[in-house]
Amino acid sequence: MIEEGLHTLLLGDSSVTALVDGAATGELRGVYVDDVPRGARPDYVLVATLEDDHNNTLDGGDGSGAGALFTAEVEIDCCAVRPGDAKALARAVLAVLEDFEGAAGSVTIEAMILGRRQSGTDDPLPGEDHRLHVETLPFTVQYRP
User: Fold this and answer.
1) Quick one: residue 102, left, alpha or beta (phi over 0 = left, psi -120 to 50 = alpha)?
2) Are strands 107-114 and 44-54 parallel, antiparallel or unpaired?
3) Number of C-beta neighbours around residue 133 at 10 A
4) In the chain, what's the furthest Cα-to-Cα distance?
5) pLDDT tens digit sequence for 57-76
6) What distance in Å separates the CA atoms of residue 141 and residue 49, rounded to the nearest whole number?
7) What is the pTM of this model?
8) Which residues are within 8 A (CB) of 22 and not within 5 positions of it... i.e. 6 or more apart?
9) What is the rounded CA–CA span in Å between residue 90 and residue 74?
10) Distance in angstroms (rounded) separating the CA atoms of residues 105 and 29
11) What residues pair up with 73 in beta bridges, in sequence order?
């Protein structure tokens, strides 16, 4: 649910799409949810929800009714062949999402709280000759469906 809203926000921003658009080269690149499709080439963004739950209410309700507030732990990986490109992609994603409040697809985001950023490098995939540089942006997201 929330990952689709974040996907919509990121695809709607020209600074992000300019960095992941593979149309000119015919490559499959972009912003993906939960999994990267076979054949996708860096640079891309991967949005994954690690945990998603509704908040219980003080009146004893389970908090899952209309207008309920949900809290999700979301990880956004900005992946590129070159470390500088991964960092540039992470900066573009942060410009869109950090402290964002408002409509995002079918949800309304109440708060986007950035956690501790991480940088890393993945080993090459079979048949690939380059390492994948990853900038991970963990967010706690409070939203209403």
Assistant:
1) left
2) unpaired
3) 22
4) 58
5) 555 455 556 668 889 999 99
6) 10
7) 0.86
8) 28, 29, 30, 41
9) 15
10) 21
11) 51, 140
Q: Under a CB-based contact definition with an 8 Å cutoff, are residues 131 and 124 in contact?
A: yes
Tracing tokens 């390492």 back to the chain, one arrives at 131
Question: How do residues 97-108 score in pLDDT, each as one tens digit?
Answer: 999 999 999 999
Using an 8 Å Cβ cutoff, are 45 and 39 in contact?
Answer: no
Query: Tokens in use for 42?
Result: 């860096």
Cis peptide before 43 (omega within 30 of 0): yes
Report the distance separating Cα 101 and Cα 98, nearest Å.
9
Q: What is the DSSP string of 33-77?
A: ESSPPTTB-SSEEEEEEEEEEEPP-TTS--S-STT--EEEEEEEE
Structure tokens at 68: 């309920």
Which amino acid would we find at residue 63?
A: G
Amino acid, res. 131:
R
| Structure token digits, residue 55 | 């908040």
Beta partners for residue 45, in sequence order: 31, 78
CB neighbourhood size of 138 (10 A):
16
How many residues comprise the chain? Answer: 145
